[in-house]
Design a protein that fits this description.
heterodimer; A: alpha/beta; Rossmann fold; 10 helices; 10 strands; 27% strand; B: mainly alpha; 2 strands; globular; binds adenosine-5'-diphosphate; binds magnesium ion
Amino acid sequence: MILQVKDVVSGYGDMDILHGISIEVNQGEIVSIVGPNGSGKSTTLKTIFGLVNLKQGEVLYYGDSINQNTPDQLVGLGLSFVPQSDNVFPSLTVHENLEMGAFISKTNKKYRFDLIYDLFPPLKEKRKTQAGNLSGGQRQMVAFGRALIMEPELLLLDEPTAGLSPLYIDMILEKVAEINKETGVSVLMVEQNAKKALKMSDRGYVLAAGQKKYEDTGQALLNNEEVAQLFLGG
Amino acid sequence: MVLLLQLISNGIILGCIIALGSIGLSLLYGILKFGNFAHGDMMTLGAYFAFLFKVQLGMPMWAAFVLAMALTAFVAIIVDQIIYKSLRKSDSIILLIGSVGIALILRNFIQLIWGPQNHFYDKGIQMPIKLGLGVRVKPNQILILVVTVALVILAHLFLRKTKMGKAMRAMSDNMDLAKVTGINTEQVIKWTWVLGAVLTAAAGILLGIDTHLSPSMGWNLLLPLFAATILGGIGSPYGAMLGGLVIGVSQELSTLIIPPTYKPGVAFLIMLLMLLIKPTGLMGRSV
Ligand SMILES: Nc1ncnc2c1ncn2[C@@H]1O[C@H](COP(=O)(O)OP(=O)(O)O)[C@@H](O)[C@H]1O
Ligand SMILES: [Mg+2]
């Protein structure tokens, strides 16, 4: 098991948002977290990455606790995170954004950049463009590239398709599946497009009000009438 | 006409000094999100360190210049690690108040060691060079211009070409994302202090070369420094360079219509106007 979130209670200041959440990701899996707005999906990812105060419980990576690790240490361990919004450095060029993704690497290995440009060809022509001047879809590619450049083992994605046009939504989700298949990176993904996300996921979790409501394979959740009615819009 | 050109030329020299100081002020604001009220006194400290090396220890000026910049950077890192680091999680107003305290400590320290009287790097008098059209500049002022241009180019290259410089811009864009990305933010903060301290020390030394040293030389420039930073757009080092020149030239030109003692008022006025009309500054982002 690559990631194990055990009975986690966390929140902002004195307010608890997650009330004892447990989530697991096995090596090579795509796992989706779905649920209504404000149910604590983003908070779950942020807690794993050490950005939100963990008050109780434990986060294990390959069986070792990472509760005390700083975000830059986690990147060194092979974790990577694409936040929900503001996930590129707008005044830096596309290439500089990728360079920042490789900050922990002592050497600026060219092959890493080539891999990203092969994965997202539109970025290659835009490498000298400031990320703030890109379209939403291209910006998301930069955010992915930045997160993938150190060849992580676990990729956390927070609503990777938020605000994108339908064309880009499918393209980005297909990319996630492609990256997972080709690099073997495990993926823990939060998605608004719950049906599409569950369809491509090995397993899924449904969160509501900071608690885990359902947990099953992606297909089983899609077929679960209760889940469909309450959370997938009928 | 001659007077006008002379004032512009004087203004450019003053503008160089202000620009060097405000680049660091702007960078520090962009990354640490607080106005460093000790920036002017760090400038003074740099100037007195150069006095120590040049006059008291008899070193050549260029060596004193470089050593003073290094020593000022060292002091800045120490102060950051002892004082600011523990305050980083608190409100930026706390950091600001902390910096006011550090400003006072630095100024009193300087007065204690070197006394309240004025000091000079050189006692000799320089013959002005005539530039044509009746404008006169001292050789030292040409030196100030050359050193400033060189340092600004170096700072630009540092910010554009080095990994650390790019990380500074990244942190200034988005601190949380910088952390998530794996940037060692504490290390970048140290380098930001180094860059800011080196440039402001240079500004202080150049001011000392142009005029003289006094314990309040940097403190007196703090208002123009902030004005230049705000004019250029807080957090934008390139704007700060431009802002410095504008403030310097307008302060000198203002003496055409108002008494010279009101010069700092001009900086204040420009700062206020800018805050009212376009708070993001000439080159600032819309935050
Ligand atoms: N930085 C924050 N400070 C305080 N409360 C927050 C913060 N971020 C989110 N919250 C609150 O936490 C709850 C869960 O938010 P979030 O995890 O972003 O939900 P989701 O991603 O599922 O939409 C919401 O009630 C939200 O208002
Ligand atoms: Mg969210």
